[in-house]
Amino acid sequence: MKPGQFAYHAPQTVQEAVAMLAEVASQEGRVLAGGQSLVPAMALRLALPAHLVDINGVAELGRLAAETGELAIGACVRHARLERPVVDGPLGRLLSNVVRHIAHYPIRTRGTFCGSLANADPASEWCLVAATLGATMVAKSVRGTRTIAAADFFQGMMATALEPDELLVEARLPILSPDTRFGFYEFNRRAGDFAIVMALAVYRVEHGVIVDSRVGVGGVEGHPRRIAAAEQALAGRAPASEVFRAAADAAAKVVEPIDSKPELAAYKRDVTRTAVRRALEAAEKSL
Amino acid sequence: MSDNKTEVVLTVNGKDYAIRVEARRTLADALRELCGLTGTNSGCEHGVCGTCTVIVDGDPVRSCLMFAVQAQGKQIRTIEGLADGGKLHPLQRAFIEHHGLQCGFCTPGFLMLAASTLERDPHISDADLVEVLSSNLCRCTGYQNIIKAVRAAAAEMRAR
After folding, report:
1. Which element (helix H / strand E) includes A269?
2. With a CB-CB cutoff of 8 Å, which residues 82-141 of chain B face chain A?
3. Which top CATH class is B5-80?
4. What is the pLDDT tens value at each position of chain B, 160 positions in all?
5. Into how many domains does chain A fold?
6. Whose C-alpha in A87, A214, B120, B128 is 20 to 30 A from the C-alpha of A264?
7. What interface predicted TM-score (ipTM) does this complex get?
8. How far apart are CA A30 and CA A260, in angstroms?
């Protein structure tokens, strides 16, 4: 249960960090942010990086700022910083609602928002939030800076569009308008466990009907994603329990659980139906 | 460096410990084996059980998920620093009075978790307290007496 040997690098600036990463990326080099997923993997020797580039000393990566309609979350912003709403309106409340489902408090004091995105665990709450709300990821390397839309960023189980020499310096979430309703529902066996299935729903109501709906499901497929069929079932309909049920049924029908055993896949499909319905019901009560 | 070790100074309970440590050495192991502070117990060694919880710059952290080299320059607090000399901390007394421990293995972790929690929020609600305490494992007490002990200590600390 002891991590294997690695060379430790502690850059002080983003420039230094990406320069170091460029040097070591091809030699089993990894970024160390909060370490709450990577270090357990190292203790179990599932991960044996030869180099770790520790970004915790890079002050500029602790940036958390609302600007031009977006909330910018720097690479070193820890989960616990989002426990109290960091922006006015639904987005701040959504983040502080969801964060409490992430592991336990002493993990949330270290683990980071962007680290969760880069790790891309299928059961990651932040990956579900990023995919559902349509976050933009900002990746930096010595080759330059690029932005990646959530729909392109998540590519599969623990797989993202990040190149080995790229550092996810920031994630940007759209700030939700004050009339946006949101609901999050997670099912697991014990508090703090990985989600078995979770769902996030956001929508607005205009002239009595649902508009701009986004429904995301996580923990079921290789990565969390929006479920278009569920959104279509909501569009233009007045919020009501039969409408939510129809959207939940649509989601349960189209998800493709990654579980290899058919009975597990059927179970996840079933729980998806419940999770989506409960997220939608919670959204209805959120304003 | 031929032996792959780095000079690190850890500040634990206000005292500096100059150690030579491999980067892969966790803070938990460095505290126990290089600083001689064996009050912090090491349990699962992958962040699940919480028995190695210490306070780093005011926050409770799993010391098995932090490398010792990362803790340089930070204020680390461990169970050895909780009592005021020979006078037990209210939490320590409450754990004895309310039978919040049996074998004692998880106790240092619970005490540091509870201490940092009450320092952060002396008026923490019962629901939030249960949520925070759910992060550590105890296989003896069934948790109820730990919750009782922390509540009693919280009331005592607020009354001061």
Report:
1. helix A262-284
2. 113, 117, 131-132, 134-135
3. alpha beta
4. 457 899 999 999 999 999 999 999 999 999 999 999 999 999 999 999 999 999 999 999 999 999 999 999 999 999 999 999 999 999 999 999 999 999 999 999 999 999 999 999 999 999 999 999 999 999 999 999 999 999 999 999 999 8
5. 3
6. A214
7. 0.95
8. 30
